[in-house]
Amino acid sequence: DADLAKKNNCIACHQVETKVVGPALKDIAAKYADKDDAATYLAGKIKGGSSGVWGQIPMPPVNVSDADAKALADWILTLK
Length: 80
Fold this sequence. Notes:
Layout: H1 2-7, H2 25-32, H3 38-48, H4 66-76
Helix pairs in contact: 3-4
């Protein structure tokens, strides 16, 4: 949820509506809206980091629990 995103400093690089360092959260939601395991996939990207999917700037791993990563992913997917 938004509070969890603020707590884990996600908003330093991601805003809901606009690209900052990383893609807008609504753009992430749109890209993975039809993916069956989208929440699990995104939770893995949150915890493990990512590079090359949205451009040259890598996303570092975020030190969150599995439950928090899943909650963040579930919330992101609601932002359509």
